[in-house]
Amino acid sequence: MLAFALWNIGAVVAGIFSSDASQAQGGTEPSTIQEAVANPGDIVIGLNGDEDTYVLTGEEYLEAGAHAAEPTDGILNDKIEISGDVDTSQAGDYTVTYRVKDSSGHVAEATRTVHVVDDMETQQDGIPIVMYHYVYSADNPPEDLNANYILDTDLDAQLAYLSENDYYFPSYPELKAFIEGTHSLPAKSIVLTFDDGQNGVFTLGGPLFEKYHIPVTSFIICNNSDAGDVVVTYQNPYISFQSHSFGLHQPGGTVGHGGLISALNKDEIVEDLEHAQQILGTTEAFAYPFGDVTDDGRAAVEEAGILCAFTTKNSWAHIGDDVRALPRVRMNGGTSLDGFVSQIS
User: Fold this and answer.
1) 93: which of 40, 71, 225, 331 lies 20 to 30 Å off by Cα?
2) Looking at the chain, which residues constitute the CATH 3.20.20.370 domain(s)?
């Protein structure tokens, strides 16, 4: 299995997270670092999960990391350095900083505020993981308009509702621990995902995610010739690019919708998943093509080090579910705002 060192992470010991970022190559004085940060060039950096993270005292702070890219250097996830201390034995606000440097010496950074609290209203039993596909505008509707397409103005209204009602957007480490029953999430937690990597998600949805500061996941089909370029071209602080497999999004199997996965053994699936990970530079999540799941598929997800994998089964995910095959709430185009609210409440 390929190993991906995505972040320079320190230790989590006795409820205390600490990470010391190493100096840039050749050594850099603090004043020079600050000057470089003020001029990040074309680097785009964003956090995985909510930029305001909440943790109950006594529970573990689960570092989620960040993602970054630059047009010339490409994906920079493995160059991100993390610094900051979070002591979950002591209530208070803590800052974790993510910094990355490109080959031209530009430096970009992002910060996460971690709120360690003695008490909070928590999510109970389950969580909605919303599944979208494509985004379009009224002045340029697709020829094959169907339920997989959501109007950009409808998406805007849904995101505005989530923002105005203080929804929380957990990272995949948080989601996994919540489903396994070892970590609390704030009430009104939700995860938003978009399958297939359609351009409208980036060009129409991207500005909306930035407008509302709402992180989402785009599941990319990685055997498309431009898959790696898409990640760099459409890099967005609020879009995490994750795997929709390398070559499994095609027919050839006999399970469910007939996706290829059921024709492959575990080792073949692992090889495909790791190939996709190499292209994207991420390992946190995976969406099964066509929603088809097999026992070998579950085992391959675990062996590839993927934290959470998702089907197309239409349901909330509940504590005790298999994190290797979590259901999602299908959000069809044309759903009213009231319909959206009822499905996530």
Assistant:
1) 40
2) 126-344
For 31-73, what is each residue's pLDDT tens digit? 455 556 668 999 999 999 999 999 999 999 999 999 999 999 9
pTM of the predicted model as reported, rounded to 2 decimal places: 0.90
Tens-digit pLDDT profile for residues 249-302 = 887 778 877 889 998 999 999 999 999 999 999 999 999 999 999 999 999 999
For 34, 82, 280, 344, the CA distances from 184, given in Å and listed in that order, are 36, 24, 29, 18
Q: According to the CATH classification, is domain 126-344 in 3.20.20.370?
A: yes
The CATH number of the domain covering residues in 7-117: 2.60.40.10
